[in-house]
């Protein structure tokens, strides 16, 4: 077999699959059972290629026993995370935020802290800021800031650039497009950028939800943690939820993805809507 053919056919052995899948679940929470073997294999092909590594045995040596191992772990995490996201994803949540959550919160607070806890490439936190602007415009002036965190460094980089394609904003209303997006001045360009007044409200930070301490200061009134817990086992889901609750003010709202639930978990959250929870006072 020549080298090129070899490069396209790197298979992961049992030992290496066990080693990598256990490490990834411990480190970032993402479950990789046997049925995900080919997914892991395919997502890591590019890393092996870039590093000029011939097989997964050598890759494991590189990750676990070389001086560049820690750097490679970050690249590996980037390669294995699923970063699928969209503007206006699960739009009922933004409606709930504007019409139910914010009117309650502003009764007692003039400054609102929001957190997008797995923000991917930024569509979710920018949408949160846009809907804050809508609320402010229709109701009353409040200060707010959005912290947006994720473990994937390439996603965070894209999020910070805030540049998207016209295709990405097809779902956005014309009014929102006009109000919150800038078109590229280059003729024929398909690129759009989030306007600076929205960008300045959102701060990005790398946070691994599996870590004991997130290093976040202050507490949050609105938290979106959507479409990330599905990748974790029940125990890790419960741990992450508890840490998020510790970062929420009394009366704060938590939004999960529509296929995620807190069923069977004991905590200070009450269900107030579809995948929406409110923190009770202790
Ligand atoms: C499918 S995206 C969801 C993005 C957005 N919340 C949404 O609903 O559209 C899942 C995100 O979770 C991030 N993620 C996975 N494991 C994580 C962890 N342990 N800590 C922080 N973020 C993580 C991934 O990098 C990815 O960007």
CATH homologous superfamily placement of the largest domain: Vaccinia Virus protein VP39
Strand content: 15-25%
What number of domains? Answer: 2
**Could you give the order of the helices and strands?**
HHHHHHEHEHEHEEHEEHEEE
Largest sheet: 7 strands, mixed
Helical amount: 40-55%
- The top-level CATH class of the largest domain is Alpha Beta
User: Count the strands?
Assistant: 10
**What is the straight-line distance between the termini?**
65 Å
Rg from Cα: 21 Å
What is the helix tally? 11
User: Which secondary-structure class do the elements indicate?
Assistant: alpha/beta
Chain oligomer state: single chain
User: Ions, cofactors, ligands: which are bound?
Assistant: S-adenosylmethionine
- Mean of all residue-level pLDDT scores: 94
CATH topology of the largest domain: Rossmann fold
Strand numbers in spatial order across the main sheet: 6-2-1-7-8-10-9
Q: Which word captures the global form?
A: globular
**At CATH's second level, what is the architecture of the largest domain?**
3-Layer(aba) Sandwich
Low-confidence stretches: 1-7
Keywords:
single chain, alpha/beta, Rossmann fold, seven-stranded mixed β-sheet, three-stranded antiparallel β-sheet, 11 helices, 10 strands, 43% helix, binds S-adenosylmethionine
Quickly describe the structure.
The chain has 282 residues and is an alpha/beta fold.
Topology (elements, then pairings):
Blueprint: H1 3-7, H2 14-28, H3 37-51, H4 56-65, H5 69-80, H6 92-105, E1 111-116, H7 123-138, E2 143-150, H8 153-161, E3 163-165, H9 174-180, E4 181-183, E5 191-194, H10 196-199, E6 202-206, E7 220-225, H11 234-246, E8 248-256, E9 269-273, E10 276-279
Parallel strand pairs: 1-2, 1-7, 2-6, 7-8
Antiparallel strand pairs: 3-5, 4-5, 8-10, 9-10
Helix pairs in contact: 3-5, 4-5, 6-7
The structure holds S-adenosylmethionine (SAM).
S-adenosylmethionine is lined by residues 28-30, 81-85, 89, 118, 120, 124, 150-152, 155, 207-210, 226-228, 257.
């Amino acid at each position: 077999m020549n080298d090129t053919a070899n490069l396209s056919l790197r298979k992961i052995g049992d030992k290496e699959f066990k080693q990598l899948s256990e490490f990834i679940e411990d480190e970032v929470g993402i479950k990789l059972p046997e049925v995900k073997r080919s997914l892991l294999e395919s997502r890591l092909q590019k890393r092996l290629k870039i590093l000029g590594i011939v097989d997964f045995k050598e890759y494991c040596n590189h990750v676990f026993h070389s001086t560049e191992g820690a750097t490679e772990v970050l690249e590996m995490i980037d390669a294995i995370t699923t970063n699928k996201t969209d503007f206006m994803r699960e739009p009922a949540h933004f409606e709930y935020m504007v019409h139910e959550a914010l009117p309650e919160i502003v009764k007692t607070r003039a400054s609102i802290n929001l957190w997008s806890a797995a923000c991917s490439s930024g569509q979710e936190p920018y949408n949160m800021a846009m809907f804050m602007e809508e609320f402010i415009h229709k109701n009353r002036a409040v200060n707010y800031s959005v912290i947006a965190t994720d473990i994937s460094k390439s996603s965070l980089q894209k999020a910070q650039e805030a540049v998207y394609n016209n295709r990405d904003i097809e779902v956005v209303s014309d009014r929102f497009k006009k109000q919150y997006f800038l078109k590229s001045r280059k003729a024929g360009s398909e690129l759009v950028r989030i306007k600076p007044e929205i960008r300045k409200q959102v701060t990005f930070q790398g946070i691994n939800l599996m870590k004991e301490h997130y290093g976040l200061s202050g507490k949050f009134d609105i938290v979106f943690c959507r479409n990330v817990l599905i990748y974790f086992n029940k125990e890790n889901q419960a741990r992450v939820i508890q840490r998020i609750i510790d970062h929420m003010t009394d009366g704060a709202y938590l939004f999960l993805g529509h296929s995620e639930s807190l069923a069977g978990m004991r905590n200070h959250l009450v269900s107030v809507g579809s995948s929406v929870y409110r923190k009770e006072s202790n």
